[in-house]
Every structure is written in structure tokens, then in C-alpha cells.
Amino acid sequence: MPKIVAERSDVIPSLAEIFREYGFDGASLSTITEKTGLGKGSLYHFFPGGKEEMAAAVLGEIDEWFATQVFEPLRSADDPRSAITSMCSSVAGYFRSGRRVCLIGAFALDNVRNRFSDRVRDYFAEWRGALASALERAGCPERDALALAEETVVAVQGALVLARALDEPEVFERTLERIQSRLIAATGGDEQR
Amino acid sequence: MPKIVAERSDVIPSLAEIFREYGFDGASLSTITEKTGLGKGSLYHFFPGGKEEMAAAVLGEIDEWFATQVFEPLRSADDPRSAITSMCSSVAGYFRSGRRVCLIGAFALDNVRNRFSDRVRDYFAEWRGALASALERAGCPERDALALAEETVVAVQGALVLARALDEPEVFERTLERIQSRLIAATGGDEQR
DNA sequence: GTCTATATGGAGATAGAC
DNA sequence: GTCTATCTCCATATAGAC
């Protein structure tokens, strides 16, 4: 039985989709009221800091999702190899196989970056670091691990740009498959089958 | 002896830098007048269509630069291998080794994409197609050529996102070196030295 | 071509009733 | 917690003198 009365946390997913679709500057308060179904009164009740606080809340939720679903498993799983393949499917799911853009990547290229630069930087640094850690524990030499982790994050972000630009989600799917084979190969290939 | 009176084409490079720095929505007309040193009168004299026409002019100039400096050489050079290495250095120079973002990539992730979707799509499609053509002519099988061309454009765009997000231009430099070795390897490696 | 002044709309944000 | 009404400001764009 869903509550009629909204809670702050109920609104954040809608806000995320809105910012993804319109960008930070492009998402006006009227767009937001329309798409969320909430009036400005409610919006400012939940987010007294206005649009900036809304975006910060969205970024916070994204951070948290990746931290628990992706970064922590990569850093602490007993089996780093399976954490890596699991990362690939989580990421494919999260970005809807290339049909959804990365809000943090979009913010990174925008001028709003300056308002959220710490969060933007930490997100990518965490991802790269956590994946490198998993690769190392899976037997990859440190130098290779760092390079391959960076290559992976670069490929994911680039694929999202291209998939959106060309309106070809398959670019993302192909990229993710390619990178996954490379990650598997670097952690000992098929030998453990 | 520089002319005092501005010409339309003189303004476009400044506009490009402004859109790169502030984004389309983030670049207000007051920002633009301030940074270009031109009043609104002059701006609307050159670009009667306003900001949208300014952005279109910038995109047109970028298109043209890439067409003549990168795409055409890739498609028609007698020596496709050297056209490929030359692409890498042109691209490194153009993006200032990762300190400059790709405006078209940024537009692709933004909602302004909808206003310029044809140009955005064509730019990336052209790049991927031209590079694939050069790879094929350099002896790469068609399937591999397409995949590697796509991987290259993905890597460049992703590296620009990450370099900007992390404030680490080296990410771009490392990526470009890695991709260049891969391109060279795919066209026969060092054997022709 | 370039400027200043101005029109007009929509932006983000607030107030206060319910 | 949600609404409507309202405020202020700055956005884009225009007009017309020089």
C-alpha cells in the first residue's frame, strides 16, 4: 500500500531521471514540478537549498549505490574475479545497456562541475581505485592493474557518450563486452574454468 | 596590422572556448559579451539567430576542422598508417593533451543535444567511419577495423571525461598513447620499420 | 559594426493559507 | 506536507542612435 504523502527519498529517483534528461541548467523548476507531480512548496520543503540541494541529493544517492553495489564488493570480496564480472553486469544494468547516461560524467563536462567537483572527482577516483584493487588481488601486477582499471572507466564513460551521440546503445554493449573479456584475461583468463 | 573591426569568423574561436568552459546553457549573453569584448549589438549583428546560431557556427567550425585535418586524410591518404599516427597527434594537440574538453561530446550528454542532434551524430559517425576506412586500407580486416575505430573514438571521449573529472590531463595522454600503440599494432605493428 | 537603453519572459525562490 | 500567489532578478532578444 503506497503512501500518498511523499517522502524526500521517494523524490530523488525522479529527480535523477530529470537531471539526466535535461541537465542541471536545463531542468527548470517548472519541469521538475511537472515531472515529479510535486509543487514548489513541497520541493522546497524537502530541499530548502533549492535545485542545488536536489542535485546534491541525487549525486549522494548515486554515490551510495555505486559504493555498496560496486566499489565495496571490488575492494573486499573474497573472490575478486567474480566481483569484477559482477561489476560488469551491475554497470550494464545501471546504465540500461547504454540507454541511460552517467549523470556524473555529464556533470564533469558541464560547468556545474565546479559546484560538485569533489563528488565528481571522488566518484571516478573511487571506481578506478576499487577496480585496480580487485585486479591486483586477482593476480594482476600493480602497474597493469592501474592501467586496466583506468582503461575500463574511460571505456564505460566514452561508450556512454558515443551511444548517446549516435543513438546506438549497442556501442555501449559492445564496449562492455570487450572490456569484460580484457578484465577476465588479465586475471588469469579462462584457465580457472 | 590587425583589423579593429571584428569579423564574424574572428569571434567563433572565442565562442567555442566560452561554450566549452560554461556549456550552452551556462554561457549567458552577458558572459559572452564580457569574454568576447563585443556588445550585444555586434553579437546579434553577426548571429541574428542568437545563442543558438552562435553554437551552430561553432559546431560548424569544429566539423570543418576535423573534416580537413582528420577525416579526409584518414579516408584518402596514400599512406593510411601515417594518417593514423597523424590523427593521434592532431587530436592530442586539439584537445590540448586533455586540458580541453570535446564540445560535441559535452553537447551529446546535455539536453542541448536535441537541438543539434544531426551534427553531433554525424561528427562521431564520420570519425569512426573514416578511421575504420584507414585501418582497412592499412590491412586490417573489416570487422576488426570497425571495432578498433569505435574503441578509439570511445577511448578519446572517455579519456576527456575522466581527465576533466579527475583534473588529471595525464589520463588523456596515457589513453592516447595506449590507443596509438594498438592502432599501430593492428596495421602491421613495427614490421615495416 | 558597435553601442546603450529597453522590452519581456521565465528563471529560482519565498510567503503564508490550508 | 502541499498548494497558490507573489517577489525579484537575470535571461534572451530588440530598437534605434551613432
From TrEMBL, chains A, B:
Matches recorded under Pfam families: TetR_C_13_2, TetR_N
Alphabetized PROSITE patterns for the sequence: HTH_TETR_2
Limits of the HTH tetR-type domain: 5-65
InterPro entries cross-referenced by the UniProt entry: Homeodomain-like_sf, HTH_TetR, Tet_transcr_reg_TetR-rel_C_sf, YxaF_TetR_C
Keyword Transcription among UniProt keywords: yes
Superkingdom of source: Bacteria
Alphabetic keyword roster: DNA-binding, Transcription, Transcription regulation
UniProt DNA-binding region: 28-47
GO MF entries: DNA binding
Name of the protein in question: TetR family transcriptional regulator
Native source species: Ensifer canadensis
